[in-house]
Amino acid sequence: MGQEWRVAIVGGGVTGLTAAYQLEREATTRGIRIHGTLFEAAGRLGGKVQTERVGGFLLEEGPDSLLARKIPTTGILVDLGLTEQLVESNPRERGAFIVHRGRLERLPESTLLVAPYRLGPLLTTRILSPWGKARALLDLVLPPRSGDADESLAAMISRRLGREVADRLAIPLLASVYGGGSGELSVLATFPELHQLEQKYRSLLRGQRMLSQQRRSIQPGSPFVTLRGGLHTLIDRLSGAFRSTEVIQNADVRELRVLTASTDHRAYQLRLADGRDYLADAVILATPADTTSRLLRDVAPGTAAVLAEIDYRPALVVSVAYERRQVTCALSGTGFLVPVDERRTLIASTWVSRKWPHASPLDSTLFRCYLGGPSITDLLARDDTDLVALVCSELSSLVDIQGVPKLARVYRWSSGLPRYAPGHLDRVRRAEEGLREFPGLVLAGAAYRGIGVPDCLRQGQEAARSVLSHLVSRQRSFHPFATSIRPDFCLSPPVNPGCHGA
After folding, report:
1. Shortest CA distance to 36 belongs to which of 273, 286, 231?
2. Does pTM top 0.85 for this prediction?
3. Cα–chain-centroid distance for residue 401?
4. For residue range 348-368, what is the model confidence (pLDDT) as tens digits?
5. Candidates 1.10.3110.10, 3.40.50.150, 3.20.20.120, 1.10.287.990; correct CATH number of 107-218?
């Protein structure tokens, strides 16, 4: 039967679940015996991918969609039977709004990444002043920046198109993907295509036009999709597909140790909060950067220090639903974004009933609202009633709404989204280099190379393949360390074998 290898996966979010699933699938195909154990500190799987279903509404607590161009036509969604669940955003509702001087202004047509690439919409929009429009046109003649040094989104857009385009259009559009903010995000880590467009076409406006043509030919439909039953359907399918992987919830891993001196054949010991130990031949750390930093503090202090530099932005989502008759204006489009200089607590809103009609009853209008700004930490401490009242007040100042909502939910994430500051990819490389002497110890997750669900799926798969490659190389030359250690080093008492579901 061959050797059996023990693999620990720490973290039961999308990345960790995908890694465990991929390990099982590829190990079986390659004839490798693996005993996997996934540890999740919380009492539920999925991390920030959570769906609440109530009264005919689908309420997403974390991410609400997937970027279509990042979903492969074959792969894990096909394997899980989820392709029939994919649904595009409403094709009859295109475009969004920007709040400008306290009013909703429609986002100019042909806006792709940072600004309209067609001159007509650029020159006629009321969002930009005449000076702002003239400054944006300089992008067509300015030379490209030389070199591959990283810079912030705010710096790059201001350099190419001017501060007005940056503040009123580009940063609200781009930074919204990462929870809002002032645009102090790494270009190379968040939107590397901007750097590529500047280098290839010398102009972002010209480059956007070419990119638009390419995307329409490759992905003619909506750029966003979701799952008809909610994104947690993915979590349910992943965890339900396990055959040999043990899943332990409420299992907080507090300590990671290296048990062997040889850099060729490491073995690892995980200690849980309840004092139990688990021995592993390989470990995938699919945890937030601060948790991973703590676990690596004694093992790889250099890597731990680098990971401690990755900040997280709090996230606060409030969903409110009204009877359709209470919304007295005709909504069109999919929602709105709020620039920082508008000085609002409400930084964005998705009109869920318009964008995803399946997520709301026909007689209701559902809004998904995002709070942010400098006071986000204070907002997290306020009770639900205050936050709902705040959202309703700001929402009704922009959209004609009468009365109080029929449904309201508040979802708090004190450590919401990792902030990819300039130099982020260099930090990730340094963190990974610090683990080279620990083969079989792998980092994966939203803190590193992409925060979206498809990015986490990809990173989970890559982590599983990295571990399998390591175990294959060990199998050729060495016996599993786990078979030669004293039994009392292994997890005791035995794990409940029935704990496999979400």
Report:
1. 286
2. yes
3. 32
4. 999 999 999 999 999 999 999
5. 1.10.3110.10
- pLDDT one-digit tens code per residue, 283-299: 999 999 999 999 999 99
Specify the CATH number for 4-47+232-310+422-489; select among 1.10.760.10, 3.40.50.300, 1.20.1250.20, 3.50.50.60: 3.50.50.60
Taking 70 as the threshold, does the pLDDT of residue 488 lie above it?
no
pLDDT of residue 217: 59
> CB-based contacts of 163: which residues, under 8 Å, 6+ apart?
none
- b (16+ CB within 10 A) / e for 127-149: bbeeebbebbeebeeeeeeeeee
- For 234, the token pair is 């993915």
Coil, strand, or helix at residue 498? coil
Whole-number pLDDT of residue 501: 32
For the domain 311-418, what is the CATH superfamily, name and number?
Protoporphyrinogen oxidase, mitochondrial; domain 2 (3.90.660.20)
CA distance 156 to 427: 20
